[in-house]
TrEMBL record:
The organism's place on the tree of life at top rank: Eukaryota
Keyword line: RNA-binding
Name of this protein: RRM domain-containing protein
Recorded GO CC terms: nucleus
Presence of the UniProt keyword Repeat in the record: no
Basic and acidic residues composition bias: residue spans: 102-132
Stretches for region Disordered: 90-132
Organism: Paramecium octaurelia
Segments forming domain RRM: 2-78, 191-268, 386-458, 483-559, 578-655
Length: 656
């Protein structure tokens, strides 16, 4: 529905002129004028990225004039579309007009006829072989003896050659041959697809939304030319082979984003396998460098959690960096901060970390970055493939050091480093270089500290925001559903033909009628799709529609509700209150330390730490403030703070 065929175009019009004309109704992904040799056949194809734009363009340009030519616009169809009309041209093989012109020539053999002939030949071949073998045996048995020039009788011949016949039978016994199991070639990746004829203006996110309808996409790569433009093809890899097969069957030779996609199974990427083997060897080397078995086990666990986004903490800070930054800011000596006389050292460290986190957030806002991703759950946050967060940085590291470090693995476009050295942001030129730097520098020891890397969210650097796309998809879905009616209370004997005939007597522009069946039995309801929303509204206003002695009940079709697979993990949204629930508390903490930590963000009304029977705390607490604003300030400030090495988890408490 996103590709149009435009007929009766002017002879001298170019593709660039057509693009400027049709771009008025939406983003054009493809323009193709059809030629036969050097002669313009006066029709073309126009592809739009969105179906809604194609529908608007069809309604606007159909039966209008372009350079004194009245054009006709319709939706394009693929060659294997069952709704494609029968061929009638004398130039098309298989049509009746073509056969009249080429009477002397043999009619073209279609695929079905060719296949039937091949099947007949396969069935006849074994029969002919058996007959020819029997006939040859008969001739050999009945031939004359040339040496004696005397005819030998049938019985004599059998007696003389009985041994030869038995030997021949033993040789010709059918051997049981195990047929090879049908499997894909060794060099074909069952989960990977090679897709050609994609739009040159398409982005990775647009293609990902198309392919995610059929399964979970583990990777999507769009090769680029030297100038940076797209090559017109991509590689898509799914998590399961069944998902790749489903995408292949649904998208091959189908119109997507205004173009006809061609999907083929992809071969295994030898370079990727080599990189994986090299990475595995490097990991084994890193694990082997450790002396004790416990350190080897911990190292292996750390390497396995490299790409686990749920364990990433964006605002993780190096404790030494925090102390050095605070001491430099206030001109203090580190000995004064880390004095043994301080009883509440854990509280002071938590307060300093909270202050540095606040400064980091203010710095991110000051350089024009979007920090809304901090409020979103990690599993729902889409990650960039070129921007990297660098954490656990030493205080003496500067921007030039980071630039030199990451320049070893590609071209660095941008480098940002917080003044307090809490976090660094690196933007590489493309995804290959970024991935190379990420895999090589993750857990890399740089100036005495191990670097922790994390892929930045797509919304951080002003990249494509998916909310607008989602809203647009919802609007398109709602507009699509205005043309569909839900009909129930159907007679179980009513067929789709009867329903179509009955509704056609009321309205003319009915596009499709569907009655839901289960195992061949009607379920008593279905859907009616119209060409225009006005026709659907007209039918809704009709009353007393009786078909097969049943009063039909019509209503507007509604979208299918999305099922949440993680219902247990789904958190109920609680309105902000003046009471907070503080979880993941260290068991070493007490009420006095927790009160000192919290009270600076508002007047604390009540603090309660539930305890076990032995008197130790249970790992959570309830803090009640005077008003909601103070509770909200405390929740936002302490959300990423560590207390005795544990990260505090703060939520609003339910009303009792």
């Amino acid at each position: 529905m996103s590709r149009l065929i435009v007929k009766n175009i002017p002879n001298l019009i170019t593709e660039a002129q057509l693009k400027t004309i049709f771009e008025k109704k939406g983003e054009v992904s493809d323009v193709k004028v059809i030629f036969k040799g050097n002669k313009n056949r006066r029709f073309c194809f126009i592809g739009y990225k969105n179906e809604s734009d194609a529908i608007k363009a069809k309604e606007h340009f159909d039966k209008t004039f372009v350079m004194m030519s009245k054009i006709s616009v319709d939706f394009a169809k693929t060659v294997d579309d069952p709704a494609l009309p029968r061929a009638w041209s004398r130039h098309t093989p298989g049509s009746s007009a073509f056969q009249k012109v080429h009477k002397s020539e043999e009619p073209p053999v279609t695929k079905k006829v060719k296949q039937n002939k091949e099947d007949q030949q396969e069935q006849e071949e074994p029969k002919n072989e058996v007959k020819s073998k029997k006939f040859q045996e008969f001739l050999e048995l009945m031939k004359t003896n040339k040496k004696s020039n005397q005819e030998i009788s049938w019985n004599d011949n059998v007696n003389n050659q009985v041994d030869e016949i038995f030997e021949k039978i033993e040789k010709e016994k059918p051997k049981v041959v195990q047929q090879p199991k049908t499997s894909t070639p060794a060099n074909v990746n069952e989960r990977r697809l090679y897709v050609t004829n994609i739009p040159y203006t398409s982005t990775e996110q647009e293609l990902k939304t198309v392919f995610e309808k059929y399964g979970t996409v583990s990777s999507l790569k769009i090769p680029k030319q030297r100038g940076g433009s797209l090559s017109g093809f991509c590689f898509v890899e799914y998590q399961l082979p069944e998902e790749a097969i489903r995408a292949f069957s649904e998208l091959d030779n189908k119109i997507v984003l205004g173009r006809i996609f061609h999907v083929r199974p992809a071969f295994k990427d030898d370079k990727e396998e080599q990189l994986k083997q090299e990475q595995q060897m490097n990991q084994e080397k890193m694990i082997g460098e450790e002396k004790s078995s416990y350190k080897k086990f911990k190292k292996q666990q750390m390497l396995e959690r490299l790409n686990d986004t749920t364990s990433w903490n964006t605002l993780f800070l190096n404790p030494n960096t925090i102390i050095e930054g605070i001491s430099k800011k206030y001109s203090l000596d580190k000995k004064e901060i880390l004095s043994e006389e301080n009883d509440d050292m854990a509280v002071k460290m938590a307060q300093m970390e909270t202050q540095v986190i606040k400064e980091t957030k203010d710095w991110l806002k000051s350089i024009g970055l979007n920090i809304d991703f901090l409020k979103v759950e990690k599993n729902q946050c889409e990650r960039s493939n070129i921007t990297i967060f660098v954490k656990n940085i030493q205080f003496r590291v500067n921007e030039t050091d980071l630039n030199e470090l990451f320049s070893r693995y590609g071209q660095v476009n941008k480098v940002f480093l917080a003044p307090n050295r809490s976090i660094g942001i690196i933007t590489m030129q493309d995804d290959k270089q970024a991935n190379n730097a990420f895999t090589n520098l993750q857990n890399y020891k740089f100036k005495g500290c191990i670097l922790y890397l994390e892929w930045a969210p797509t919304t951080l650097m002003g990249e494509t925001n998916k909310t607008n796309e989602v809203n647009q998809q919802v609007e398109e879905q709602e507009n699509e559903l205005t043309r569909i009616l839900y009909v129930k209370n159907l007679n179980f004997s009513t067929t789709e033909k009867n329903l179509l005939k009955f509704m056609s007597s009321k309205v003319n522009d009915i596009k499709k009628v569907t009655i839901i069946n289960k195992e061949g039995v009607s379920q008593g309801y279905g859907f009616i799709e119209f060409d225009k929303p006005e026709s659907a509204q007209k039918v809704l206003r009709l009353n007393n529609l009786i078909l097969d002695d049943h009063l039909l009940q019509l209503s507007q079709s509604k979208p299918k509700p999305k099922q949440d697979l993680n219902k247990r993990k789904q958190k109920q949204e609680i309105e902000p209150t003046n009471k907070l629930l503080i979880k993941n508390l260290p068991f070493e903490a007490n009420a006095q330390e927790l009160r000192r930590l919290i009270k600076q963000y508002g007047e604390l009304k009540k603090l309660r730490l539930p305890k076990k029977l032995d008197g130790s705390i249970r790992g959570f607490a309830f803090a009640e403030f005077l008003n909601n604003e103070e509770a909200q300030n405390a929740a936002e400030s302490l959300q990423s703070t560590h207390f005795y090495g544990r990260r505090l988890v703060i939520e609003y408490s339910k009303e009792e």
